[in-house]
Inverse folding.
């Protein structure tokens, strides 16, 4: 885990959620649903799962799913800085390893696009739409004040139990768990290795949020992106010097830190920040990240 | 019986379909249901299926697609569901076990009111009328809001990943950061753009003289380096105006803030070298200081620590003209090598920077710079000036001893709040140099002394409040005084023919100065707006008062001083008043951005000198609009275009009438009125990038044309040149084109790049009554490659090839080969084209984690037809070993391994060919020990 990861996700969140997307191809956010995402990525370390706050933005026709760590950080930074007693020492709280990808979902078109921010550029990947055969069961439960009904379905090599509510006029679920007639508030896989837990929802303060694909997103494919990431790990300087010989990337503020990933913080007066302390989530977050138990165990493409 | 058979068939088909649905659900869905959503079948398998079909329409008959149709139990549970298709149709298949009286259909669609329908016992087809309804988010019942909390334990985050073990200062790490460039002068560029501010923990401690910071601040103190793009230093203007400035902020580590740190660097070497430094650093919230004292004789120019590196010097501003130095030593230029190769010096400097943030928000800062230096340079230079039928040539040999000094004090007080900005900056400079040289030219040996003393005072006051209506006012007053008195003394009366009617004399002394006062008051009004257009209107009043004084005196052999007989010297008064009204518009929409600036200036200039019965005044209206646009072709590529008209007016140094000996071989005076030039220029730039494959390219063209009303006319002989500015229409034009491509080669793990440029410029010269329109063309090509192997070895290569040629327009011939040309000249057959190749190779090797070795080599090749090729190879070896335990570093640098002591160079400017030979620093080895205290 490192700052750039968080901040990278922030970039995408900022870009996808608020700015830099053209009005024609985006729509306003009507609802935002928070989840806590749990993923046991390394079965050899069952005590060190990845935990993260994720968010689903719901619009009239589209959904945007991704890490909320970035916004949480931004809100947190703003809150700290708005405090008159702010002394310049900033504390950032973050999960161990925020998801890097953002999913842009259009159920009506059976379309999922993946926005992958990397090295200050947003890349756009096509992804296949999950067709999950949900079996609706009669069991119901109260989650966050809503009556939620059970449904069972298989996706990506895992059997999920999802709890959805039809009390609200929205449909959608976290990540790729789509296709139920209501809003998924909770989902767990059979083995208990993947969990999405309901964390509240909000309709307020969404006026400046829009769902859409960033204007500057560059279409590519997974293979090319993997090649780029690998090359970057091997020789970040050479890569970035190749880049720097061309024009400046867009954005307001860019920060270099470990790994050289820039991030963009809108409207934050960085000059007031004197120091940054990162509080990380979950034990084991300082170790190396091993992924032997991916979210999707079958190839999604 | 028939009914039974049909019924059985139905059951069989239903069961088959159900099995199919369980195993290959997708196939069934696409085959049997037109709509997408899958069907709940858990309770249905055991029983017979019943179909409910329907269509969704609005009152006007429009079909409603993408609606969620639920079959619900009265308890609220969903039994099954589907989605309406493009024709508004839906199909629900419900298990027969369901009691129809306890279920109902519910149709949900954002944008329509929710519809609930009872399920009739025999009804299978439903026509549902939907009522449009806008979503009212207020009505959505949010029963649980997100928790604002976060998990986690605390650990501090260390950002040091760019730093290599051999790095010590932030400047060294900065060079490794993507997009960053640090020039020899210490200037930082991000993506080819010079930074505007260098912040330390948000405070601009060093202002625009930040080179000392990059060279001194240990990178271990810095947690994070931030690049602030589109940076606006004034908080009140943030998000209120478009800016393309880039700034850098060093975020200091928490633990490094607590105490004062410092370093002691002691260095000594052979032959007889020293290089030492002591510094103290404290960066906390309230108080920041960076104080450095250092000295060396190893060729490091400490003066570079004090050069102003910012892009926009607030104090200089628009239209604020410092008169140029009138007198110069008149010696050929410096070699095309880093200064440390030929700088023979003894230098010492003190650099004290202190800043305090008071509780009230007031920030006080002081920067004090002191420098003393003694350096010398030995050189031989030759110049040939080609005229249509003649060649003027002179050679000079000089031994220069230069003693520059500098003292500068800057005091600023700033309030930088969200609602207003206030700044007062006071600058006091006193600096100078005494350059003594022993010169030998074509005919004489003599001693020349140039004494320079520069006094500079300026005060800038700026107040920028945000008004109640959200617009922003800008009030600024800038007052400055500048003077640079100079005295040029030459012993041995040279050029007696010209200066003293052929009578030999003892010495000549030229003194000159232009004291000047400038006051500028400006008022601006900014409408940030919320739409696509931002506006700014400004009113600026400038008044300038200058007085040029110069005297040329000769000392006769009997010891008494005479004023130069032909010309009494100058006492020229100058007044300039300007009133500028400016309107700036900024427009941004989608991928298109434009800014248009429309400044209109009413200018009035008056100048006069009683001795020459000169009293001229002129008024002029100047309009110089500038348009800049940028258009994004797609997410990665853009096209930018700019065009501007410029109108320029000459200055006091172009209107004085009395003769000035500007250097030992040039006499200068003017006959023309005030020079006015007007012109226009534009550029077009295309940027192409494919980030995913790491391919970046750009290309552009630019042009500039201007027409001036006067020209410098020169009458030259081998001993002296007389220069006069006379009225003459003079066109100057230049064209340029550049292109560059850079690619990361995945297979090699290396970056390769190639840049090329072409430029052509043409201008006119009047020499010995001949009009000589010259065209100079040059090409450059720069290939580069950098790679790293096995983590311990790194290699970099860069070369620059330059081809320069100059010719007389329209003749195609080579001047200097005319009939009257001296047939014995070495330069006679010279083709005036020069080819230059400069290659640099560096190899880094870190066999141990704490040991670093670096080999740097540079090869220069200069070729000119008819001359012997010149080749130089410089090799340096640097090594560093860290003793962690003792908090100590040991550096051993061996410079100029090949011991190259002499450097020769050729150069071409228009119709001049210059040759220079310089003495270089010989091989040296310096060992330096750094103690962290």
């Amino acid at each position: 885990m490192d700052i750039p990861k968080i901040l990278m996700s922030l970039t995408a969140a900022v870009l996808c959620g608020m700015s830099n997307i053209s009005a024609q191809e985006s729509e306003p956010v009507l609802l935002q649903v928070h989840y806590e995402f749990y993923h046991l990525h390394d079965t050899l370390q069952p005590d060190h799962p990845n935990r993260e706050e994720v968010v689903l933005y719901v619009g009239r026709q589209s959904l945007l799913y991704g890490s909320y760590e970035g916004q949480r950080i931004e809100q947190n930074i703003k809150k700290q800085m708005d405090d008159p007693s702010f002394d310049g020492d900033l504390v950032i709280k973050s999960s161990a390893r925020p998801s890097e990808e953002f999913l842009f979902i259009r159920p009506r078109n059976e379309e999922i696009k993946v926005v992958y921010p990397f090295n200050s550029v947003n890349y756009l990947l096509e992804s296949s739409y999950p067709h999950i055969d949900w079996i609706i069961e009669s069991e119901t439960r109260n989650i966050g004040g809503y009556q939620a009904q059970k449904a069972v379905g298989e996706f990506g090599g895992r059997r999920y139990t999802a709890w959805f509510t039809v009390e609200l006029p929205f449909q959608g679920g976290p990540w790729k768990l789509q296709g139920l007639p209501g809003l998924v508030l909770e989902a767990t896989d059979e083995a208990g290795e993947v969990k999405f837990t309901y964390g509240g929802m909000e309709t307020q303060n969404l006026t400046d949020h829009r769902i859409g694909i960033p204007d500057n997103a560059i279409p590519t494919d997974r293979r090319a992106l993997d090649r780029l990431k690998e090359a970057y790990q091997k020789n970040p300087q050479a890569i970035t010097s190749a880049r720097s010989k061309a024009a400046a990337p867009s954005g307001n503020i860019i920060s270099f830190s470990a790994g050289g990933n820039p991030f963009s913080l809108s409207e934050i007066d960085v000059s007031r920040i004197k120091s940054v302390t990162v509080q990380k989530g979950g034990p084991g977050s300082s170790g190396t990240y091993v992924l032997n138990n991916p979210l999707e165990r079958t190839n999604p493409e | 019986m028939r009914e039974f058979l049909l019924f059985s068939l139905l059951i069989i088909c239903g069961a088959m379909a159900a099995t199919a649905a369980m195993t290959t659900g997708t196939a069934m869905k696409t085959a049997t249901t037109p709509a997408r959503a899958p069907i709940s079948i858990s309770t249905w398998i055991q029983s017979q299926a019943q179909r409910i079909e329907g269509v969704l329409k609005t009152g006007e008959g429009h079909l409603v697609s993408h609606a969620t149709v639920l079959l619900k139990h009265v308890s609220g549970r969903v039994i099954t569901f589907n989605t309406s298709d493009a024709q508004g149709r839906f199909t629900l298949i419900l298990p027969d076990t369901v009691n129809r009286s306890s279920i109902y259909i519910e149709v949900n669609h954002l944008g329509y009111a929710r519809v609930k329908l009872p399920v009739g016992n025999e009804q299978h087809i439903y026509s549902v009328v939907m009522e449009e309804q806008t979503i009212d988010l207020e009505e959505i019942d949010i029963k649980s809001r997100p928790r604002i909390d976060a998990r986690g334990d605390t650990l501090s985050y260390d950002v040091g990943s760019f730093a290599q073990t051999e790095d010590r200062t932030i400047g060294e790490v900065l060079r490794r950061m993507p997009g960053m460039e640090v020039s020899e002068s210490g200037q930082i560029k991000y993506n080819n753009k010079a930074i505007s501010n260098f912040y330390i923990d948000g405070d601009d401690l060093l202002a625009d003289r930040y080179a000392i910071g990059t060279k001194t601040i240990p990178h271990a103190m810095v947690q994070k380096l931030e690049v602030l793009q589109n940076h606006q230093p004034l908080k009140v203007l943030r998000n209120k105006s478009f800016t393309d400035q880039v700034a850098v902020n060093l975020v200091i580590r928490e633990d490094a803030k607590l105490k004062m740190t410092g370093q002691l660097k002691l260095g000594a070497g052979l032959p007889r070298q020293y290089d030492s430094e002591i510094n103290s650093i404290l960066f906390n919230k309230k108080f920041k200081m960076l104080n450095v004292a250092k000295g060396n004789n190893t060729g490091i120019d400490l003066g570079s620590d004090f050069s102003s590196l910012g892009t926009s010097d607030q104090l200089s501003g628009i239209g604020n003209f410092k008169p140029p130095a009138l007198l110069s030593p008149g010696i050929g230029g410096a070699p095309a090598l880093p200064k440390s190769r030929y700088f023979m010096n003894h230098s010492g400097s003190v650099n004290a920077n202190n800043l305090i943030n008071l509780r009230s928000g007031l920030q006080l800062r002081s920067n004090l710079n002191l420098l003393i230096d003694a350096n010398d340079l030995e050189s031989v230079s030759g110049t040939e000036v080609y005229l249509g039928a003649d060649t003027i040539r002179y050679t000079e040999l000089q031994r220069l001893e230069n003693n520059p000094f500098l003292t500068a004090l800057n005091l600023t007080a700033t309030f930088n709040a969200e609602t207003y900005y206030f700044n007062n900056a006071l600058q006091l400079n006193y600096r100078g140099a005494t350059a003594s040289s022993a010169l030998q030219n074509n005919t004489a040996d003599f001693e020349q002394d140039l004494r320079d003393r520069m006094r500079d005072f300026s005060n800038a006051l700026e107040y920028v409040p945000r008004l109640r209506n959200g617009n922003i006012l800008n009030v600024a007053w800038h007052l400055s005084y500048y003077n640079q008195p100079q005295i040029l003394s030459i012993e041995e009366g040279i050029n007696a023919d010209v200066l003293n009617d052929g009578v030999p004399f003892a010495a000549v002394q030229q003194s000159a100065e232009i004291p000047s006062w400038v006051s500028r008051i400006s008022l601006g009004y900014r409408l940030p707006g919320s739409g696509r257009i931002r506006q700014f209107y400004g009113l600026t009043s400038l008044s300038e008062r200058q007085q040029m004084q110069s005297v040329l005196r000769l000392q006769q052999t009997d010891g008494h001083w005479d004023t130069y007989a032909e010309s009494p010297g100058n006492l020229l008064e100058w007044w300039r008043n300007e009133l500028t009204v400016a309107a700036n518009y900024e427009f941004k929409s989608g991928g298109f951005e434009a800014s248009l600036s429309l400044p209109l200036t009413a200018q009035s200039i008056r100048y006069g000198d009683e001795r020459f019965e000169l009293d001229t005044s002129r008024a002029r209206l100047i309009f110089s609009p500038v348009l800049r646009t940028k258009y994004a072709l797609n997410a990665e590529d853009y096209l930018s275009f700019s065009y501007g008209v410029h109108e320029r007016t000459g200055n006091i140094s172009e209107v004085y009438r009395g003769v000035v000996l500007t250097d030992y071989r040039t006499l200068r005076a003017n006959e023309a009125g005030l020079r006015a030039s007007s012109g226009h220029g534009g550029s077009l730039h295309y940027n192409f990038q494919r980030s995913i494959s790491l391919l970046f390219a750009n290309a552009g063209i630019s042009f500039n044309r201007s027409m001036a009303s006067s020209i410098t006319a020169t009458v030259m002989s081998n001993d002296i040149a007389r220069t006069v500015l006379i009225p003459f229409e003079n066109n100057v034009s230049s064209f340029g084109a550049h292109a560059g491509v850079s690619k990361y080669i995945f297979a090699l793990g290396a970056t390769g790049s190639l840049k090329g440029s072409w430029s052509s410029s043409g201008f006119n010269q009047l020499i010995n009554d001949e009009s000589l329109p010259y065209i100079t063309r040059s090409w450059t090509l720069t290939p580069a490659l950098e790679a790293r192997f096995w983590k311990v070895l790194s290699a970099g290569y860069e070369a620059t090839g330059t081809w320069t040629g100059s010719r007389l327009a329209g003749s195609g011939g080579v001047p200097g080969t005319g009939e009257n040309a001296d047939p014995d000249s070495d330069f006679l057959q010279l083709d005036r084209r020069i080819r230059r190749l400069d290659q640099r190779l560096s190899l880094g090797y870190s066999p141990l984690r704490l040991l670093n070795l670096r080999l740097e080599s540079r090869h220069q090749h200069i070729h000119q037809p008819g001359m012997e090729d010149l080749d130089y190879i410089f090799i340096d070896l640097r090594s560093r070993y860290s003793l962690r335990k003792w908090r100590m570093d040991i550096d051993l640098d061996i410079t100029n391994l090949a011991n190259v002591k002499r450097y020769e160079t050729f150069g071409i400017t228009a119709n001049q060919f210059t040759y220079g030979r310089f003495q270089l620093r010989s091989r040296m080895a310096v060992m330096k020990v750094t103690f962290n205290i």
